[in-house]
Design goal:
eleven-stranded mixed beta sheet; 36% helix; alpha/beta; developmental protein; P-loop_NTPase; 714 residues; Rossmann fold; phosphoprotein; 13% strand; rRNA binding; 25 helices
C-alpha cells in the first residue's frame, strides 16, 4: 500500500501551514558542497561550527514530496547558489563547441537546456541498417533453447491472459546456496522451480557476441581466488541472480548493499540488459536483409520482430553517478579489446554532465561508510538519457524514440510523463518496454515514491501516436496490448518494505512468473546498540493499515506524550519517519504550546543550527526529527537523554545509529536514559529487522509492552 497516499488524505486538516514549493525550486536543490571542513568532535557546539557543517552538506533533496515546503523558520525558497552549476555548464559548453556539437545554453539560469543528439539519426536507425557479418551469427539466435527467443516468441492465448488477470498466483519455496530462501510464484501452471547452477559455462548462457569474451574481463574485479577454480566469470551471487534474470522471470532482491554487493549486481543486470538489446537488434537487422533480398509478393508476416516503439530497456536509478557507471559498464562490455574500441557519440558531453569533480567534496566530512557509498559522485536526482546501440557503436543522448535503453531517475521520467491535463506530456516511449530495472528502490522512499507509482501506471500502455512504426514488423503481443505480460521487472532494494512489495506483487504481470528473495533477519540491528539503554516497545492496536496512522497519533497523544511532559524528562528526541506525521505532530505541539523545536529535510541551515543548540542546552524540551533529514545529512545530534521512535525506522541500521547518539551526550554515566518505540502488528517487517525474527514472533503474539535491555555487549 502507498502509505504516503493514505497519509495525505488522512492529514489534510493538519497541514494548513504547509507551504506549496514549486517543483522547479526543489529541482535546483541538488548537492552543493563547500570547501569548508566540518568538525563534530568539539564539545562546544557554537553556531558558527554548525553553520559550517550544514554548509558543507547541502544534500540532493530536489525530488522529495512535492508541495511540502515549510513556513516559519523552515524552507520557503531556499535554493542553493547556482554559481557552480554555471561554471560547470560553461566549461562543458566550451568543450562541446570545440567538438562541434550543438548546444543550447541559457545563461539566465546557469543550466543547459535538455540536449538530444539529432546528428546521428540515420547511422543508428534500425530500419535502414543491416547485419554486419562479423557481428554475430543471427541463426544462433534461432535455437530453441535461447532464452530471449523462448520468451519473446511465446504466443499466449486469450484464456491464459484471462487466467493471469483473474486467478491468484500459486507459489512455492526453494533454498539456494547464496540467495537463501526464494519464493517462486506464477498464475500459469506447469512452471518449474528453477534450480541454482553450481557452475556456469559462459558459452551455455547464449550471450550475444561480443559479450562471451568481454564479460569475464569486465567482471574479473569482483572475482576472488576462491571463485576462480569453479567459475571463471561470475561471483556466487551474480551466478544465481543471472540464472533468474536469464530465465526472464521477474526478480525482487531486497539485500542490495551499496558497500558490499551493489556494483556486482549492477554489472549483472547490465550484462542481461545489453544481451537482450543486442539480440533484439540483431534479429531486426537480420530480417532487414531478408526483406531486402526477398522475391516480390512473398509473405513477410514471419518478420514480426519489434515493439510499437523502439525503447526496450528502462533503467531507473537514483543519481547521475549511477547512470555514469552503467554507461561505463555498457561501453566496457562492447569493447572486445583495446584495438577494437567502439564509437561513442557525445561521450565528452556525457562525462561533463554526469561526472563529478573530486575536489568539490570537503575532505573532512565524517559520515558512515554506507552514506559515503550511496552519495558518491554526482548526486543530482533529475536526469534522463536515451542510449542507442547498433553493432559496434553507441549513441548517448539519443531521442527516446530512437533509443534502445533509457536511463532515468524517477523525477526525470516523471517530468516527461507529466500529469493529466498538462499539454506537454509523453509516455508513448514506455509502450514496448521489455525489461524494467528499478535499482536502489529504497532510496525512492526517501525521494518521492509517488514518482515510481506514476511510472508504473504509464508503462506498457498502447501509444497514442504511431511514431512512424511499420505495423507489418510489430509483434502480435504488442498489437494485442499484451506487452505487460511479457515485461520482465528486476527490482533491487536494500530492504523489505510494504510499498516496494506492493509494486512487485500488484504491478508486475510477467507470464513466466516471479522470484522474490525472502530471508528473515535473525538478530536485528538492536544488537549493534553500544550504549546501556532500556528499550520499551509499546504496541498500539489498529483495525486496518489505513487506520494505523490515526491510531498511532492518538496512542502517542493519549498514552506516551503525557509521560514526557514533566520537565524532568527533558532532552527528548522524537524520531518521525513520515513527513506527514511530522507535520501533524508539529501542529499539535504548537497548539498545545509545548516547549519544542523541530528539524526536517526542508529546514534552513541556520534553523538547523539553532534547533541543535537549543536542544543540547536544554532550552527546548523536545526535538521533532524526521527520518529523511537523517538520511540526507547523518548529523550526530548531541544532548539526547530520552528517545521516542514514533514509528520504526525504514532503514533498520538507523535504529542503532540513533540510539548510539546517546553516547555523545555529556555526563552519560550518571544520566537515566530511556528509549520508547511505538509499533503495531502491521510493522512486522520493520520490527524483525530491528529485534530479529524470534522476538518479533513473540511480540506480535503478545499484546503486552515489551521491555528489552541492551547492555552494550551485544
Amino acid at each position: 500500500q502507498s502509505e504516503d497516499s493514505d497519509k495525505s488524505s488522512a492529514e489534510s486538516d493538519s497541514e494548513a501551514e504547509v507551504e506549496q514549493v514549486s517543483g522547479y525550486h526543489k529541482l535546483l536543490a541538488t548537492l552543493k558542497t563547500s570547501p569548508e571542513s566540518e568538525s563534530e568532535e568539539e564539545e562546544d557546539e557554537s553556531e558558527s561550527e554548525e553553520a559550517e557543517e550544514s554548509e558543507a552538506e547541502m544534500g540532493s533533496e530536489g525530488s522529495r514530496e512535492t508541495g511540502e515546503g515549510e513556513g516559519g523558520e523552515e524552507d520557503k525558497n531556499d535554493v542553493p547558489e547556482e554559481k557552480e552549476a554555471t561554471d560547470t555548464a560553461e566549461q562543458m559548453l566550451s568543450q562541446e563547441q570545440a567538438d562541434g556539437t550543438d548546444t543550447s545554453y541559457d545563461p539566465r539560469h546557469g543550466v543547459i537546456e535538455e540536449f538530444t543528439d539529432v546528428k546521428h539519426e540515420s547511422e543508428f536507425s534500425l530500419e535502414t541498417n543491416f547485419m554486419e557479418e562479423e557481428s554475430g551469427d543471427c541463426n544462433a539466435d534461432r535455437k530453441d533453447s535461447n532464452p530471449f527467443k523462448q520468451h519473446m516468441d511465446k504466443e499466449l492465448e486469450e484464456k491464459e491472459i484471462e487466467k493471469m488477470s483473474t486467478l491468484p498466483k500459486t507459489s512455492s519455496q526453494s533454498q539456494w546456496p547464496r540467495l537463501g530462501q526464494l519464493i517462486f510464484s506464477s498464475t500459469l501452471e506447469k512452471h518449474k522451480t528453477l534450480k541454482a547452477d553450481k557452475e556456469v559455462d559462459v558459452k551455455q548462457l547464449h550471450l550475444h557476441k561480443p559479450l562471451e569474451s568481454t564479460w569475464p574481463k569486465v567482471n574479473k574485479q569482483f572475482l576472488s581466488a576462491v571463485d576462480k577454480p569453479t567459475d571463471s566469470s561470475f561471483t556466487p551471487l551474480q551466478r544465481e541472480l543471472f540464472c533468474i534474470m536469464n530465465s526472464y522471470r521477474d526478480l525482487f532482491y531486497p539485500e542490495r548493499n551499496a558497500l558490499t554487493n551493489g556494483e556486482e549486481i549492477r554489472h549483472a543486470y547490465c550484462l542481461h540488459a545489453l544481451n537482450h538489446v543486442l539480440k533484439a537488434n540483431a534479429q531486426v537487422l537480420s530480417n532487414n536483409a531478408k526483406r531486402r533480398d526477398r522475391k516480390p509478393g512473398t509473405d513477410t508476416d514471419d518478420h514480426r520482430d519489434q515493439g510499437l516503439t523502439r525503447p526496450k530497456v528502462l533503467m531507473i536509478v537514483p543519481f547521475r553517478e549511477c547512470a555514469l557507471r552503467i554507461v561505463h559498464i555498457l561501453i566496457s562490455l562492447l569493447e572486445v579489446n583495446d584495438k577494437k574500441k567502439i564509437d561513442v557519440s557525445n561521450k565528452k558531453r556525457f562525462k561533463g554532465e554526469y561526472g563529478s569533480d573530486p575536489e568539490e567534496k570537503p575532505p573532512n566530512l565524517k559520515r558512515p561508510e554506507d552514506y559515503e557509498a550511496v552519495f558518491a559522485g554526482n548526486i543530482d536526482d533529475h536526469f534522463r538519457i536515451g542510449v542507442a546501440i547498433l553493432q559496434r557503436s553507441m549513441r548517448l543522448y539519443a531521442p527516446f524514440y530512437s533509443s534502445d535503453i533509457i536511463i532515468a531517475s524517477p523525477l526525470g521520467i516523471r517530468t516527461v510523463i507529466g500529469a493529466e491535463g498538462e499539454k506537454k506530456r509523453d509516455f508513448d516511449f514506455l509502450s514496448s518496454i521489455e525489461i524494467l530495472i528499478i535499482d536502489q528502490a529504497d532510496i525512492y522512499l526517501m525521494q518521492n515514491w509517488e514518482h515510481v507509482l506514476h511510472l508504473m501506471k504509464h508503462i506498457n500502455l498502447l501509444p497514442l501516436d504511431s511514431h512512424g512504426v511499420d505495423f507489418s514488423r510489430v509483434r502480435m503481443l504488442n498489437l494485442n496490448n499484451w506487452s505487460k505480460y511479457y515485461r520482465q521487472t528486476l527490482l533491487f532494494s536494500a530492504l523489505q518494505d510494504p510499498q516496494i512489495n506492493s509494486v512487485f506483487n500488484k504491478r508486475c504481470f510477467n507470464y513466466v512468473g516471479q522470484v522474490a528473495v525472502r530471508n528473515v533477519p535473525l538478530t536485528g540491528s538492536i544488537s549493534h546498540v553500544v550504549v546501556q539503554l532500556p528499550h520499551v516497545f509499546r504496541r498500539l492496536e489498529a483495525d486496518s493499515v489505513a487506520s494505523v496512522i490515526d491510531a498511532r497519533f492518538q496512542f502517542f497523544v493519549d498514552k506516551v506524550l503525557p509521560e514526557y511532559r514533566d520537565a524532568i524528562m527533558s532532552h527528548t528526541l522524537i524520531y518521525v519517519p513520515s513527513y506527514f506525521d511530522y507535520v501533524r505532530l508539529r501542529n499539535y505541539f504548537k497548539k498545545e504550546d509545548l516547549n519544542f523545536t523541530h528539524i526536517c529535510e526542508y529546514t534552513k541551515k541556520a534553523a538547523v543550527c539553532r534547533a541543535r543548540r537549543f536542544f543540547i542546552k536544554g532550552e527546548k524540551q523536545f526535538l521533532l526529527f524526521t527520518e529523511r533529514f537523517h538520511f540526507y545529512k547523518r548529523y550526530t545530534i548531541k544532548g539526547i537523554r530520552n528517545l521516542i521512535f514514533y514509528e520504526l525506522p525504514t532503514y533498520s541500521h538507523f535504529y542503532s545509529e540513533i540510539c548510539n547518539m546517546l553516547k555523545a551526550t555529556d555526563n552519560g554515566v550518571d544520566a537515566t536514559w530511556t528509549c520508547t518505540v511505538l509499533y503495531s502488528k502491521y510493522d512486522a517487517q520493520k520490527l524483525a529487522a530491528v529485534v530479529g525474527i524470534d522476538r518479533t514472533a513473540q511480540m506480535l503474539q503478545s499484546k503486552k509492552n515489551v521491555h528489552l535491555f541492551v547492555t552494550g555487549e551485544n
